[in-house]
Amino acid sequence: MKIFVVNAGSSSLKYQLIDMENESVLAKGLCERIGVTGAISHKAADGREYKAETPMPTHSEAFEAVVYALMKSDAKVIDSFDEISAIGHRIVQGGAVFKGSCLVNDKVIEQISELGAMAPLHNPAHVIAIKACIKTFGEKIPQVVVFDTSFHQTMPPKAYMYALPYEYYERLDVRKYGAHGTSHHFVSDRVAVLENKDKKDLKIITCHLGNGCSITAIKDGVCVDTSMGFTPLDGFMMGTRSGSLDPSALTYIAEKDNLSAADINTICNKKSGMLGVSGVSNDNRDVAAAAEAGNERARLAIDMQRYQILKFIGSYIAAMNGVDAIAFTGGIGENDPELRKYVCENLKYMGVKIDIDANKCRGKEIKISTDDSLVDVFVIPTNEELAIARDTLRIISE
Ligand code: AMP
Q1: Does 361 contact ligand 1 (Cβ within 6 A)?
Q2: Atom 12 of ligand 1, residue of closest alpha carbon
Q3: Mean pLDDT within 1-23
Q4: CATH classification code of 2-147
Q5: In the chain, where do the E strands start and end?
Q6: What is the topology classification, in CATH, of domain 197-384?
Q7: What is the pLDDT of residues 249-276, one digit of tens each?
């Protein structure tokens, strides 16, 4: 059984075709510059590649290029649509409407579109992509939507409410929704497997540290709190995002510099975080290299990032009254031994002991705490596409 996984943005479309018999990737690729020019790069599991520049005025032409790559190109991996059992779409914002993944129908498309106000960069693009996908692949292949937010729908009100006048929650749905749910779900499932325990019996903290970052607390098998909020701007500093700060700082800056709400949004989302503080880059490798070379602002950015991550982990240990396992994932979490060492050494007071040699690893699944550590610490590479494919399979099987 083969599942086609789609992760669509407004001008890009990432995809994977996964064979669910052994959960292997048969082919993956990326369409870029949709609506501008158009290009596809596609790679089959055996290394064959297909690359082409082809006009993609809309997502429909992008899907047609994908179909050509999958079925007709020199890197083809299937002969016909009939081999694809279902299509799974990653959706960024499911609000409070979608508590889990579901089959696509007209009502679902409309609801995802309505939630676009809370994810203007993502949901409208998802809707366009779903419609184009149905047009290209036909109605016979079931399509499933998997939401970044649904894993966080188990948070209790005390965790997801903001202390604003209640009417903003009632009238405008303003509350914490979280993000990266598919990744936190996947990684926490892996923790339970590695611990050889039922997830319900574990208190887990998953740290998804990439260009976007979030930390989640998982207790009794479900998410009880997460660092991202109403939008993926909340939490701690990221590549270009500020994370949480005093809202008055923003109203003060807006008044002083005569900036609009949209200007403030751009500053906080695109010009802040590692980039804003260091002035060097949004990429952790560049900032770390600059810090190493003596750049003080880069050093400050690295110090702030580590300190903020540590504080979030500490707060979730308090929220869950303990922790059994901590897992690091994402480009930074999987590849930055120094950050992991900093976190573990600052949790020494509660019995965390890091295995210095194991922690040297990059990008592979491994336990990095010692056998006598009171808390197990893991590096677990995330696989959001596989998580989407698994959920898609589950929904069509139901
Ligand atoms: P992601 O969004 O998950 O792809 O993660 C991107 C972030 O991971 C960037 O800030 C990269 O600098 C960081 N990253 C990727 N590889 C490494 C590495 N080998 N060492 C440190 N950071 C890395």
Answers
A1: no
A2: 284
A3: 95
A4: 3.30.420.40
A5: 2-8, 13-19, 24-32, 39-44, 49-53, 84-91, 102-103, 143-147, 203-209, 213-219, 222-226, 325-329, 366-367, 376-379
A6: Nucleotidyltransferase; domain 5 (3.30.420)
A7: 999 999 999 999 999 999 999 999 999 9
